[in-house]
């Protein structure tokens, strides 16, 4: 999901921008890290579990519009960051950055709502794989808007991801009108468009975050959560999608949606305080594995061979991006960096 991918990038920027709060927390956890050196990766994997369960809930609550579900999800975005803003005494809405904060919130909100619509109109695993490819496209938009270099490894990742997305969406103009889906409630074209456009919005949200990298991550996430709640509430009211969830299971699942989002973000933040962003990004790929597992367990949908092969390509691209990021963050004289070879160039 876009907001937890952005949170991973935000915490990484906070460490790299001279913010002392995250490194201090890291130093306090050193004894624990020494006892369990893979704790950061374990927490990142656990965060993937909670975020993937959020996707299951969104797909299951068919009587509640995705826009309103997004509003409940953003409550989980806002809750963990408000105490951090208060504790660090950060300016909540700093001058000179307000327009960018609003724009970034709008872009992120639209991206998440579109991903929710994709979950409704596509198999869970297919939609999750496409949405999870956001980091791969960041290099493309960073090149367009920020004039950052887009090297050979970024180009390879983008090409592999596009091929994977084509295999997953199975467009009729390439593969013919063969119908692979057993669920007649799906609208493959609508779901594929929503998932891909969600990825585009998510990638541009990353670019905006790079422009805002001087701000503390809690300030950006607090603005994101608050503005997104107002935005989704407005959309739900305008389109007549605002309703109270039914008593019982629906309300319980809505609470779980916000709670799992909260837990996923906290675990992801903790993992990034203990481990470099590159290995965490690789561990976060478990999100795709969980999506395939839940698709079979909860929705009794067996993925097609095209979906599996496409997911392998996208997963490989995301892992390539994570490995390269990890390699570039290592010291120049590191033996591990030399073993990674061309990835560190």
UniProtKB/TrEMBL annotation:
Q: Which domain of life is it from?
A: Eukaryota
> Which UniProt keyword terms apply here?
Membrane, Transmembrane, Transmembrane helix
Subcellular localization(s) per the UniProt record? Membrane
Q: Which stretches are transmembrane?
A: 38-58, 70-87, 99-119, 125-145, 152-169, 189-209, 221-240, 252-269, 281-299, 305-323
Q: How does it sit in the membrane?
A: Multi-pass membrane protein
List, alphabetically, the Pfam families matched: EamA
> Single GO cellular component annotation?
membrane
Q: Which residues form the signal peptide?
A: none
Which InterPro entries does this chain map to? EamA_dom, EmrE-like
Q: Which residues form the EamA domain?
A: 39-169
Q: By what name is this protein known?
A: EamA domain-containing protein
Organism classification? Eukaryota, Metazoa, Ecdysozoa, Arthropoda, Hexapoda
